[in-house]
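Quick start: read one record
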Amino acid sequence: MATFLYKLGRLAFRRRHFVALIWVALLTLAGVGAASAPPAGNSSFSIPGTEAQKAFDLLEQRFPGASADGATARVVFKAPSGEKMTDAGNKATVEKTVDELADGSEVASVADPYTGNAVSKDGTIAYASVKYDVSGMELEESTKDALEDAAQQARDAGLTVEIGGDALQAVPETGATEVIGIAVAAVVLVITFGSLVAAGLPLLTALIGVGIGVSSIAALASALELGSTTSILAMMIGLAVGIDYALFIVSRYRAELAEGREREEAAGRAVGTAGSAVVFAGLTVVIALVGLAVVNIPMLTKMGVAAAGTVAIAVLIALTMIPALLGYAGRRVKPAGAKSKLLGRSRKGTEQAAGQPKANLGTRWASFVVRRPLAVLLLGVIGLGAAAVPAASLELGLPDDGSQPTSTTQRRAYDLLSEGFGPGFNGPLMVVVDAKGSDAPKDAFTDVEKQIKGLDGVVAVTPPAPNKGGDTATITVVPDSKPSSVQTEDLVHAIRDAGGDIEAKTGAETLVTGSTAMNIDVSEKLNDALVPYLVLVVGLAFLLLIVVFRSILVPLKAALGFLLSVMAALGAVVAVFQWGWLSGLMGVEETGPVMSMMPIFMVGVVFGLAMDYEVFLVTRMREAFVHGEKPNQAVVTGFKHGARVVTAAAVIMMAVFAGFIGSSESMVKMIGFGLAIAVFFDAFVVRMAIVPAVLALLGKKAWWLPKWLDRALPNVDVEGEGLRTAAERGADPDEDRELVRT
């Protein structure tokens, strides 16, 4: 591995014009594809194997032309203080609004509040339901404008008017904080390298990689039904790993220059050593992201594969474009410790003036940890354990209009409907009765209606609405609790349990669907998939790390440390987004259940990122150990060469992730915060404290590997031992083909 990457690095350095041209051409091609591609349509949200999805599919089959996936809007009216919606003037305004809404070309139907029993008992609130032929993402802007104009005219007449539903669904925005995150990354790079040129290389390559990845997603969005969130998450992860991977190679290049090597040779060795770590770190991230397919939710699978593709691009760019750009930069990228115009006197000069080398902060910290390993280990574990405590109160759900900021019309419509008709009105359940196998379909419909009316937590049940064939009917059930509550979830299960008895008696199958039931099924499916996913991803990465470190205990420690950091991060997410701690600082206007996808998504992404730091930091330790240093000294040496760069990489990754906290999309905001805090816990507590403490306690046992397994495993030579051996023999690694078994 190291020899192959060494050759690749030197080749890219020598043929830099060709390499740069290839990447610029790919960026241009992706950009043209994105610009010429049709706009993304509706990103289908299906959950194979769930009752809600089965009922939805049945509706499309038995109620053709009903536009089951069409956009909906609820135009909610509230009368001025002291008036009622049934007053003549207010009624005339609403009826005029309904007539205007019905004129739209994409409108399937509009329900008049006064003929559809859509006026609250106190007469102060009413709503008109609008059904469209196409989905919310496919609605033309003119249709949305007509909806808002109609509402504004009613407001001008004196009514309070808000619009709920998905008709006004907007593409999420990330906000200015994303730019701030990149700016922080730039500052950290300048401080780390002491050079604007060296600092600019990781930023440039990361932006090119993300540009190719996101543009490719945009080009394929319509064909593959990719949602807008997919590109945002790919950008988030691609930026973070793209900067980090380039950072490690540039840092190693400067270290090789400091040892007196020529620039082409230094580039080759940097890619051969740090590049090997980049490859395996990238593989762990890709495994974790692609592994999301285990959940069998197409939307989540697409998000994972798209983000994994962006990570793969980041790895390839770091291995090829970074050495090419180093060739262009020439002497403007100085050796490590050389004098910098930005930072003044060089570190080397200071050390020489003092008469002896001065230990850097990483060396001093590692020396402290190996002297007090048990105390550091206990402190780190207890601290993360305390941060993980809120995770015991984790409640899962999917966001609805009730989780929107109070500044949005969707949220205000949600609150008005809750005020006028009860909290459950915002999440009605749709019961589908399939009586095709029943001898008396009408009697079956009536039995289901009676059974549901007798259940606790039910406010209203509409009469069965059969299809033209008379073999299927829909019944709308309004709970007395809000959509995301435990009580509503219990009601869904109660209806399904009652449906089993009805099927045994009448032969009619009862299914529960609707957005609320769909959310409940998604949460349960994600919970059921979490353990298998964890076993698959951690198991594959564990095997990969055994090959990298040629050890059993080091990969085991890496996996256990990851579990600590991800549980602590989940605890922090619960504290902020569910309990409301520091919610104002994070821009969280409404607390509630944590997004159902959050635990499994964090497990996947954080595991991959955690292994990045494990590979980068511990590879340096193993390199020192393989070259003859004692175990504790190898830990210190690893920190001497790697701690500064790993710290910079972690700060950069945190800044990039934190930049997405400003997103208008609650899911992106939560993931940005969760990943930022997870990187903090994993990099600075697990990798910087717990890992060296455990290695110090284990000593030589940390690097133990059964002899039979050592013989069976391929020697991928991540540490670049083959390159060192060739140098000691006076051979040219570029011509020595027998150094390493790859």
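The chain has a mean pLDDT of 82.
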